[in-house]
Amino acid sequence: MMSKLEELINELCPNGVIFKALKEISEMKRGTSITRKDIIEGEIPVISGGKIPAYYCNIFNRDGETITVSGSGAGAGYVQYWNIPIFVCDAFSIKGRGEVVTKYLFYYLTNIQQYIYSTKKGGGIPHVHISSIENIKIPIPPLPVQEEIVRILDTFTELTAELTAELTAELTARKKQYEYYKDKLLTFDNTIVPNVKLGDIATEIYRGAGIKRNEVTDEGIPCVRYGEIYTSYNIYFKKCISHTMEKVVTNPKYFEKGDIIFAITGENVEEIAKSIVYLGEERCMAGGDTVVMKHKQNPRYMAYVLSTTNAQFQKSKGKVKSKVVHSSVPSLKEIKIPLPSLDVQEKIANILDKFHSICNDISEGLPAEIEARQKQYEYYRDKLLTFKPLEEVK
User: Fold this and answer.
1) I want to staple 229 with a disulfide (CB 3.0 to 4.6 A). Which of 169, 263, 264, 337 is the partner?
2) Which long-range contacts (CB under 8 A, 24 or more apart) does 364-371 make?
3) Which tens digits make up the pLDDT trace of 63-103?
4) Cα–Cα distance between 38 and 336 in angstroms, integer?
C-alpha cells in the first residue's frame, strides 16, 4: 500500500524534480548590528553567532516563518527555524518564496548542516556569509510534496523530542534514586559508628606534581591530571587514560592500588575536591592540583563514602580565588566520614557495587538509545529529502 507521499510523488513528479540555487528560491537578508547597551531587555530572541539567543530585547526585525544561519564564532553556520518575532543580528535570515515552503527549506538545510559548517572562513573567528551558501542546489518538488514532507518530519521531530525527554527524565530519576540509597546506606548512628577525620586515618597525604598538557603521551607511566578527575573518571578506576614520561616531571609523585586521588582545583564549589580511588595494579603518577591519600581502609568503601552528599558538602567549603575554586591538604584532613569496621565496610561496598553497576548500565544505555533514535530520525530525513534531478531522467 502506497503512502500519501509516494502517491504525490508518482502523480506530480514521477520523473524527478528541478534543482535550483538557494538564492533563486529564497529571500536572503543580512542581520542588523545591535549591542546590548542599545536596547531594552525584553522577550525577543537576538540571533547572533551562537546556537542559542545571545540575549533578549524588546524589538524585532523579522516576523513570521524565518530560517536563521549564525554568522560567526564557534556556532557559525548553525541553522535554526523560527515562527515568532526575532531580531537577527550577527546572522542572516532565509525565507522561502513562491515555489518553496520555508520549513521544507529549513529541513533541507538542516540535512546538509555539516556541509554548511564546512564553508566557514576566517582565522581566529570563523564566519559563514550569505555568499558561502547562496549557490547550494535545492531540490524543488511540487508544493503538495513539500508540505507532506514537512508534515512527516514535524511528526518525527515531535516524537523524537518526546522520547528524548522521557529517557532523560528516566536517567535523572535513576541517578537520584541511586544517590538517595547510597546516602541512606552510609548514614549511621554516631553512637554506634564513629565519625573520623581523614587526617586521622591517612597514613600519608601529599600533593601531586605538575604534568603539562604537552607532556601527556601515548606511552610511558600511567598518570592522572586533575581535570580528568572531573571529566573522565567515576568514583573508582583501574586504568589511567593518560601517560607521561617520568623524566620530564620534576619531583614526581606517585599513587598505587587503593590510594585516593582528590582534585583540589575546580570551576565550582559543588564539585570541588571530587575524589577517585585507584584499584589497578600499576604504579601511577599524580599530576598537579591533585592530592594523594594513602590509608588502611577498604578502598571501595572510601570511594563511596567520599561521594556522598554529606562528604561533598564538606568538600565544597573550598576558597574561591580569581573565579577558580581551590581546596587544600589541611581542608581535606578536616573532612569527617563514618568509619565502621573493615567487615562492615566490605559488606556495604559489595551492596553499593551492585547499585553502581545498575546505575552505570542505565547511564550508558539511555544516552545510547537517545543517540540511536536521533540517527534513525536523520536517516529518514535524508531519505525523504533525496530526489532524482529531472535532467538526469531526461
Assistant:
1) 263
2) 366/167, 366/168, 366/170, 366/171, 367/171, 369/167, 370/163, 370/164, 370/167, 370/168
3) 989 999 998 888 899 999 999 999 999 899 999 998 999 99
4) 53
| Grid cell of 54 as nine digits | 545571545
Q: What is the pLDDT of residues 31-54, one digit of tens each?
A: 998 877 777 889 999 998 778 888
Task: Report d(CA 19, CA 11) in Å as an integer.
Answer: 19
Output phi, psi for 262, to 5 deg: -105, 145
Q: Give the helix/strand (H/E) hosting 130.
A: helix 130-133
- Residue 155's contacts (CB-CB under 8 Å, 6 or more residues apart) are none
How far is 81 from 65, CA to CA, in rounded Å? 7
pTM of the model: 0.67
Rounded Cα distance between 181 and 201, Å, is 25
H or E segment at 154? helix 143-185
Neighbours of 250 (CB within 10 A): 7
CA-based nearest residue to 288, from 270, 269, 263: 263
Taking the C-alpha atoms of residue 114 and residue 111, their distance in angstroms, rounded to an integer, is 8
The contacts of residue 243 (CB under 8 Å, 6+ apart) are 216, 217, 218, 219, 220, 221, 222, 223
Collapsed DSSP state (helix, strand, coil) of residue 71: coil
Q: Measure the CA–CA gap between 381 and 152, rounded to whole angstroms.
A: 9
The residues pairing with 19 across neighbouring beta strands, listed in sequence order, are: 139
Per-residue pLDDT at 320? 65
Q: For the residues 9-22, what does the mean pLDDT come to?
A: 92
Reported confidence tier of residue 394, pLDDT bands at 50, 70, 90: very low
